[in-house]
Amino acid sequence: MQNEKCPEIKMRLAILMTNTDESDFAQAHPKDGEKFTTLIQEQRPDWDCAVFSVKDGEFPVDIQEFDGALITGSPASVHDSDAWVAQLFELIRDMDRHAVPVFGACFGHQAIALALGGTVSPNPQGWVHGYARTDSVGDLPWCARPAQVGLYASHIEQVVELPEGAHVVSSGPDCMVGGYVKGRHIFTTQYHPEMTDSFIADLVEETEDYVGAEVTEAARASLKNTADRDVFGKQIIGFFEWATKH
């Protein structure tokens, strides 16, 4: 099935926004719902994306009314005891039971793993921040891809044990589980395909006091490289089209 071209199908996706940042910095930039909508519509302009601020308790009434879902990143931890995190985990388990196609990025990647029985722990090497070159592991059944893909990153926790039935499909610096697939309905990345070049540059400066000078300097230097946004955007689109077909 490698390289098979799926016919373009107009889809309706639910974007489950988990980003809890309400700072002045956040207000001055597009929210994650808008970022992911843009990423999707760069590839499929006619796809409909409905944004749900799950971090504020706003969830879809019936997730099965959608063709699939995306779970965004967040400065929150998947180990937080907030009610919305527990509700999101229940929704993830429901989507898994009903094989609803779902893509998770960063927090979303970790939340899916933890909700389905995996383990998320602090990265022993500390922050992965800025640009990261990730290695493709094995094949994706819905598309061909290069041996390496560059993506933007900002995380200090990572998946260290996968849920039953999942397998690694990408690996990055200090992050063995850079992305995984489970069945025909789950695809994830620890990284941030939605971030633009300008946004990650601003984020690196904004977070200097939080992550520290050494991490920030390394991140600045890494940004001489740019992410393969179009390449990974096609992977996400291909996943939803393939999952829907199968």
From TrEMBL:
<dbReference type="Pfam" id="PF00117">
    <property type="entry name" value="GATase"/>
</dbReference>
<keyword id="KW-0436">Ligase</keyword>
<feature type="domain" description="Glutamine amidotransferase">
    <location>
        <begin position="63"/>
        <end position="196"/>
    </location>
</feature>
<dbReference type="InterPro" id="IPR044992">
    <property type="entry name" value="ChyE-like"/>
</dbReference>
<protein>
    <submittedName>
        <fullName>GMP synthase [glutamine-hydrolyzing]</fullName>
        <ecNumber>6.3.5.2</ecNumber>
    </submittedName>
</protein>
<dbReference type="InterPro" id="IPR017926">
    <property type="entry name" value="GATASE"/>
</dbReference>
<dbReference type="InterPro" id="IPR029062">
    <property type="entry name" value="Class_I_gatase-like"/>
</dbReference>
<dbReference type="GO" id="GO:0005829">
    <property type="term" value="C:cytosol"/>
</dbReference>
<dbReference type="GO" id="GO:0003922">
    <property type="term" value="F:GMP synthase (glutamine-hydrolyzing) activity"/>
</dbReference>
